[in-house]
Specification:
Length: about 260
């Protein structure tokens, strides 16, 4: 029994992708162009493209068309049990990226004052507020992760006013809080949640809207010696371009 027509078209599309006729990251011809090229009906073309989507060969993007899936070399994010971070999350991100010789870039922080209920891990009372610092991260020009760090407003009123500034804090917020207020981070707790992307995340990361690629949400709560939380950092990243590495005890360094 011969394969259905849409399967034959899907097989041909896969061959052309593998030969490089449709380059990785490039746009697939429009539905009308494919109908004319294969002399096939709209439904047949849609079934063929849908099969290619299911095979992970192409990916529809709302309002833009269908694109050939890029080959991705995932960034390995190290979540290690050990001492506190020195520079903070941006410094850790760059330390992960620089050895890979990728071009890493972060957006200018977007700073807001918000209700504390958005960061329950900080254990603040009713009516309290937090400062949120949000950044977009890119690797070789491609959206790679989103990060928002929440700080109790009490830190600002005590003198850490740079938390309200719309610029990067060098050499990092952790070091800044140590110098400005004498607050030392003694440890942190990571909570990892895997879920489907929300519409805003799907748009930013250019993901299909069918939830095929999951989002990893890493919620890191940092603590001082008294046990009081200092900050909550929420990092969201697509599972197709990020991997998590956990190390415990004396283990050799990995070379990626």
């Amino acid at each position: 029994m011969r394969d259905a027509r849409y399967q034959q078209i899907a097989d041909d599309l896969r061959s052309r992708i593998e030969r490089g006729e449709y380059p990785r990251g490039g746009k697939l011809p429009t539905e009308k162009e494919l109908m004319e090229y294969y002399d096939a009906s709209r439904n047949t073309i849609r079934d063929a493209v849908r099969l290619c989507v299911n095979l992970g060969l192409v990916q529809p993007q709302a309002g833009r068309g269908t694109f050939v899936t890029e080959e991705i070399n995932p960034l390995v994010i190290t979540l290690t049990r050990g001492g506190p971070s020195v520079g903070g999350e941006t410094a850790q991100y760059l330390s992960e990226v620089l050895p890979t010789q990728h071009d890493a870039r972060s957006s200018v922080p977007r700073v807001e004052v918000r209700e504390a209920g958005i960061a329950p891990e900080l254990r603040l009372g009713a009516g309290a507020t937090v400062v949120s610092r949000h950044q977009e991260r890119y690797l070789d020009g491609r959206p790679w992760s989103l990060q928002t760090t929440f700080y109790p407003m009490d830190l600002v009123t005590r003198g850490a006013t740079r938390l309200l500034g719309p610029d990067n804090i060098e050499p990092g917020a952790v070091s800044y809080l140590s110098e400005a207020l004498g607050i030392e981070e003694t440890g942190w707790r990571d909570r990892v949640i895997v879920r489907v992307p929300d519409p805003a995340e799907a748009t930013f990361f250019q993901l299909a809207d069918d939830g095929r690629v999951a989002i990893m949400e890493i919620r890191r709560t940092a603590f001082q010696a008294s046990g009081a939380p200092v900050r909550l950092t929420v990092t969201t990243c697509p599972a197709d371009r990020n991997e998590l590495l956990f190390s415990t005890g004396q283990v050799p360094a990995e070379s990626w």
